[in-house]
Amino acid sequence: MLEPIPDQVLDIQHDPDPAQDHGPARRIPHLGHAFFFFSLSIMMFLLCAAAVLTAARLRPEQIMQHLGLGLLIQVLAYILTLAASAWIFPHLWSRPFLNGIDWNVLAATRRWFWIVPLGVVVSLAAQLTDSLIPQPPKSPLDTFFHTPLDAWLLTACGVLLFPLFEEIAFRGFLLPALATAYDWLALDRTPAGLRKWETSTAHSTPALLFGTVFSSLAFVFIHGDQLSYSFGLMAVLFVVSLVLSWVRIKSHSVACSVLLHATYNLATFATAFIASGGYRHLEKLTS
């Protein structure tokens, strides 16, 4: 039996057989990849908005009068961004897209029994806390609950598509990219430090904390308009994002944070569904 090589660092990037070694460890996604992903999503949103508004013969300022079209634009932009990313990033990474963002669906199948209850508990706790916070006069989300069809469409998107896109964006791209940037800036500029950098893709604990906090701040910021920029409501969402990030880091799986996010949203919509009598009395949600 071969004796282990002293101090040999093994990971998915390296192999003790030189013929199988893939060179210095590559940390993906890094900040450049995250910037490209978010730029791509903005470009897709603008293209979809232009296409939908042209087809509907509307001016941009009229979109608020047709909220269903606004939701359609968002859905199309998310789907096209994910489709384009699934094609582009494997060429940049030389590995499958889901592997690059640490999707790891197997972890979700093994941990669903505690992730799903956690999503329900976090949702109920957030709703209870929100009820104790002074509410803004009118939330933009209230405008989506004019008809049962609006409510059902928002529920479907909020449970199926939005968690998938947002978790890939913030926990799949931004969190690890920020952690990598932190570790690079904190790297000991010595031969030993460089060797550690080139032979491992693991993030340090401070880097993961940094990535968690600042990706969560970004996550809250993009939801700020939905919350009317209420400090209290945004603080609650920040804590929720910390929980999502913790699950993603603990499980090494974006699929796990997607499952938690989807369960959280489902429990939130379920509360609205019950409170409105099956979406038949939507006035109870906005009163």
Descriptive report:
With 287 residues, the chain is mostly helical. It has 2 domains: 71 residues, no CATH class; 187 residues, no CATH class. 68% of the residues lie in helices and 0% in strands. It has 10 helices and no strands. Helix 2 runs parallel beside helix 5, helix 4 packs antiparallel against helix 8 and helix 8 crosses helix 9. The protein is globular and about 65 Å long. It starts with 30 loop residues before the first helix and ends with a helix.
Any descriptors?
287 residues, mainly alpha, 10 helices, globular, disordered N terminus
SSE layout:
Blueprint: H1 31-56, H2 67-93, H3 97-100, H4 105-131, H5 148-185, H6 191-199, H7 205-222, H8 231-251, H9 254-275, H10 283-286
User: Which parts are unreliable, with pLDDT below 50 for 5 consecutive residues or more?
Assistant: 1-16
The mean pLDDT is 88
Structural class: mainly alpha
Coarse morphology: globular
Number of domains: 2
Fraction of residues in β-strands: under 5%
Biggest pleated sheet: none
Total DSSP E strands: 0
- Spatial separation of the terminal alpha carbons: 74 Å
Order of helices and strands: HHHHHHHHHH
How many helix segments?
A: 10
Structural Rg: 22 Å
The proportion of residues forming helix, as a percent range, comes to: 55-70%
